[in-house]
Structure formats: C-alpha cells, structure tokens
Specification:
Chain lengths: 380, 229
C-alpha cells in the first residue's frame, strides 16, 4: 500500500485568454492545504472554477501561475504521463472504455505500468470485490451491460487500481439517482476508512460536501476561495454572505445532522433504583429543570421516568409508576435524530446510554441549542 | 439467348479474370485505406488541413472515372498504375469521411479518462480511439470495397490486360454478345455482395462490445432461453 500524500495549492491562478477576470472556470489565487489522508470537497456554483482546480492537479489543465504540490513535489516538475498514472481520477460520466471488459477497464493503469497479466487480473478481482461487485459475475462484462451505479463503482475501482496516494473525483455521483447516490456516498466513506487516501472531491451540492468532506472549500464565481474549513465550522460561521447563502438558510439543521451526541456535555438527571425511599429524589426532582425521577435497574439501565408530582411523598419507590419514557441516545446518534425524537417524547430529556445500555446522563433541547450557538466572535 | 456452351467453355477465363478483379480492387482498397488512415489521423485535430482534405477528396470523387483512366494514359502509359491510381483516389473520400466520423464519435469523457489515466497520445489512439472508431471504419471499408469492385470493371477501357471481369462486359458489348455481358456482370455483383457480407462479419467479430443484444447475465439468458424453449 502506498501512503497518502498531502496536496497543496499555492497561489494557483488560471486565466483564460479573453476579457479580464471572472470567466467561467477561471481560478484566482487559490491557496489551500489538504493534509495526507483527508477528504477535501471543492464546492460552489457552476463556473466557480472547482473543476478547473481539480484538473490542474493532474495537469489536464495547466495553471497560469502558482504551484500545486503533491507531497513535496511541484506537479509541473514531474513527467505528465507518470504523474497521471499516480493519481486516481473519477468523473461523472465515468468514461469507462466501452470496448474493454470491466476487468480490463479496472486494470488500465496497471497495464500502462507494465504489470503482467496474472498480477493485473488478481488486482482487478481484488478491486471489484472492494467496490462490492462480484468478480465472477462482472469481470467479463462490457460497460454497456452495467447499470449507472455499477459503472460508477467500476470507475472507482479503476481509479484505485495502481493504489495512487491521491484520488481526484469530479462530481462522481452526479449522474445517478438519489438512492444510488446515497449508497455510493456511504460506500466511499466506508472505503476511505480503510484506504485513507487524500481525496479531492468536486460537487455543486452542499449537502454532499458536508457529508463527504473532512474539509470543505467553498468557491465562488471568479474562482475565489470563499471559505475553507471543517464542515461544521463552515456551517456555524459562514465567512461571508455568499457562503451563508450558499450553505442555505437551514444551515443550523445541517449542522445538527453533522454533530453527534458524544460531542455534547450531558447533564445529570435525578436517578433512583426501585425500592429506594422516594422522599429525597422527589424533592430534588421538584427543584430541578426536569421534574422527573429516572428509575434505573440493577445494571443502571433506564426503566422509565416517574413524574415527581405523581410520586408518593415518602416510602419505597414502585417501578410500576415509571410509565413515562424518553428516547435512548448513544454517542453516535446525530443531534438531528436526537432532537426529532425529543420533540415526540413524554419527557423532554434524551437518556444517553453507553454500549452496555447503562445510563450516562441526559440531553435536553436546551443543551443541544447551547451547542449549536455559534461561538462569540473574539473567543478562540 | 444465353449461350451456355460458350459460358462453360470460358470458365477458365472467368476464374483468372475473377482473380485479376479481386487483385485490382484489393490493391486499391488497401492502399486507399492506409493512405486515408494516415491522413485522417494527421488532420483530425487540425481544422484547416481537415477541411482541405475533405474538399480535395470530394472533388476527386466528382471526376468521371472513364475520363480519369483516359487522362492518365499519357502519363503512366498502360501500366497497372493507370488502373490503380484512379481506383485508389476514389476510395479516399469514403475512407477519410468514415475514419474521421469514427474518431469524432469517440465520447469526450472516454478521451478525458484515457488522458487522466496516463495514456500517451499514441497509446490513446491505438488502444482507445481507433478501436472505438472501428464500427464506422469498417463501414467505410464495406462501402469502398463495393464501390471499387464496381469501378474495376471500367478499367477494362484500358485494354485487355485490365478490367478484371469488366473485360467480358466490354468484349460482349463490342461483339453484341449478351451472354458474355452477363458472364462478366453477374460475378461482379456476386463479388460485391460477398465482400460486403464478409466485412460485416468481420466487424461483428472485431466489435463484440457493440452488440446491442448483449446478454446482461449469460447464465440468466441461457436459463430464460431454456424456459422459453
């Protein structure tokens, strides 16, 4: 396995001959750094130069000024053919070779690199397996006999064939239907967990950008970088009106989908075990924001809530009284799901449990709202 | 009307005239193909040279064949060149148009993918563009073959040493002997049809990916067939 390499844009500019700046596809003084193994999504409206930026990495387009480094080397210093063989490339129309079988398509770069037949075949089979296509069924087919989603999988397999440290993807899922797109996105994320390639990914879809990117580079027409940062940062603190409009009025909701319960500071509920004396928990619950007592079993697993108002003043707590329930959340639940479950529950507090199902704390809508509030300017 | 005895008597002549016919047509088609392929590849990304080549080959095609054969006699004498030069020139317009159309038909995304994978220009042409242009190129080959097989007949105007099967047609006409005209004419048609069908077969062989009824899943299709049968 080759390791991933960082990709660095240093003041990269691409102008097309004609009228000054601002032509579609032009890029103006783009500087950004994608660390090795990260997914960086270039996102923006059409004509913003995102595809141009991508194609300058493998020199399908050559910059007018500035440098692009892969690792430590300026791409312009390398032999263009050798450079391209070391960079995976996936495009929306896939661009499979119609006259070659799936296996031959996948083995394109290995063949160019002079691998022998047996090695090419075993590599093609390994990659088809990796992208979820059974080699026995698919290796010998021609692209014309594949569905759109299958073609795109073959395209990804072909891009990965020579194990390149960098992968360029230009709207790779733009031409498939939404259900297949969602599945391909998830598969790519899953694949990336094992591969840890440096991926530059172009899309015009902000939701896709937020979902796929470790980093998001928002570009605006004229080829200017409007904002560069982690998806949550871009959603929480849009750098300009343009970015705010581009990410959408519902950016708060988008952030909810991005954040998980594990990132919240949970608060403590008033808890008790069946048979405990009611007096103390009752008075504490009445004094708290959530006037309920959470009954836990012997393993600290939640049984249900007893309303403090309906609880006897003293005497042993009867678990039969614990009739109200609220959603069980674990650290991987997204805040969007958590909030939506909270809105429908009896008690406005989600119970956070660990992997064994034991109580760890509670999450209220207030806590979620607090986390969503953008940090005040001036604070680090 | 048809003098069968004469025909049977001249089967030997028919055989060697057929061979001559195939030879004259074959050389013209082969040379025309190689020249056109070279020229087409050279002009495919040069718009002015391309327009010039297309115009020139079209203009050549408008020259009446009879006139061209006759016009060459003072230059090349009664040599094989006098027959082959016009025959070859007439194939150019067919080949050039078809080869260029074939190369133009290669999808842009396939070219982009090939470049991005690290094909050199030459490898891309050899492994991607030419194979994908093949259906239209072979289409040109079929058209050129049929047309040239017909034209070889006219080269009979140059004398007994040329013309292939056309010799019989000219001779029969001169002698007002219809049997001989049919004797030469029908095999010309047969040759053209056979060449066309053979090349059609060749095309199917060479382009298995272009079959429209390609089975999605061979096992499934076999099962479906068994079920239907």
């Amino acid at each position: 396995m080759s390791t991933a390499e960082r990709v660095v844009f240093e003041h990269v500019t691409k102008r097309y001959p004609g009228t000054g700046g601002g032509q579609p596809g032009a890029v103006e003084d783009l500087s950004l750094q994608v660390p090795a193994g990260a997914v960086c999504v270039l996102v923006g409206p059409s004509g913003c130069g995102k595809t141009t930026s991508l194609k300058m990495v493998n020199r399908l387009i050559e910059p007018s000024a500035g440098r692009i480094l892969i690792g430590e080397t300026d791409v312009m210093q390398r032999d263009v053919i050798e450079l391209r063989r070391g960079i995976g490339y996936v495009i929306q129309q896939v661009g499979l070779f119609p006259h070659q079988t799936v296996a031959e398509n996948v083995a394109t770069v290995p063949r160019l690199l002079g691998w022998d037949e047996a090695r090419r075949r075993s590599r093609a089979e390994e990659l088809l397996q990796l992208v979820g296509l059974d080699p026995a069924r698919y290796a010998g087919r021609y692209p014309a006999a594949l569905s759109g989603g299958e073609r795109q999988r073959v395209g990804v397999a072909r891009a990965l064939a020579a194990d390149p440290p960098v992968l360029l993807m230009d709207e790779p899922f733009g031409a498939v239907d939404p259900i297949v797109r969602e599945r391909l996105q998830n598969e790519l994320l899953h694949l990336q967990e094992q591969l840890a390639k440096t991926i530059l990914f172009v899309t015009h879809d902000i939701d896709e950008a937020i979902k796929m990117g470790d980093l998001v580079a928002v570009m605006q027409v004229g080829g200017r970088l409007a904002q560069f940062g982690a998806p949550d940062e871009v959603l929480a603190n849009p750098a300009s009106d343009f970015v705010a409009r581009f990410v959408g009025a519902d950016r708060g909701l988008k952030r909810l989908a991005l954040l998980r319960v594990g990132e919240l500071e949970t608060t403590a509920a008033v808890t008790a075990h069946p048979g405990d004396d009611a007096a103390d928990p009752r008075s504490r619950a009445l004094a708290s924001d959530v006037p309920y007592i959470l009954i836990l079993d012997g393993d600290d697993r939640p049984i249900g809530w007893v309303a403090a108002a309906a609880c006897p003043v003293s005497g042993p707590l009867d678990p039969e009284l614990a009739t109200a329930m609220s959603p069980l959340l674990d650290r991987r639940t997204t805040l969007k799901d958590a909030l939506s479950m909270l809105l429908a529950s009896d008690v406005q507090a989600g119970i956070v449990i660990d992997d064994r199902g034991a109580y760890r704390g509670i999450v209220t809508a207030d806590v979620i709202a607090e986390r969503m509030r953008p940090p005040r300017s001036g604070t680090p | 009307m048809i003098d069968v005895a004469w025909a049977v008597d001249h089967l030997d002549d028919l055989a060697w005239r057929t061979v001559q016919h195939i030879f004259l047509a074959g050389v013209a088609v082969a040379v025309g193909f190689v020249v056109s392929l070279g020229l087409s590849i050279w002009v495919v990304r040069r718009s002015r040279a391309r327009a010039l080549l297309l115009t020139l080959s079209s203009v050549l095609y408008t020259i009446p064949s009879l006139a061209l054969f006759a016009a060459l006699v003072p230059v090349t004498g009664l040599s094989i060149l006098t027959a082959e030069i016009p025959l070859t020139l007439y194939t150019l317009v067919i080949f050039v148009r078809n080869i260029l159309a074939g190369l133009d038909a290669v999808p842009a995304d396939v070219i982009e993918a090939a470049d991005a994978m690290g094909y050199s220009r030459r490898e891309r042409l050899r492994r991607v563009e030419l194979p994908l242009a093949l259906p239209l190129v072979v289409g040109g080959l079929r058209l050129a073959s049929v047309s040239t097989i017909g034209l070889v007949t006219i080269s009979g105007i140059l004398g007994d040493a040329f013309g292939g099967l056309g010799y019989f047609i000219f001779d029969g006409y001169r002698r007002t002997f219809p049997t001989e005209i049919w004797f030469g004419g029908i095999p010309v048609i047969v040759l053209a049809v056979v060449a066309d069908l053979a090349l059609l077969r060749l095309q199917a062989r060479l382009t298995p990916w272009a079959r429209t009824n390609q089975p999605i899943d061979p096992t499934l299709t076999a099962a479906a067939r068994a079920g239907a049968g």
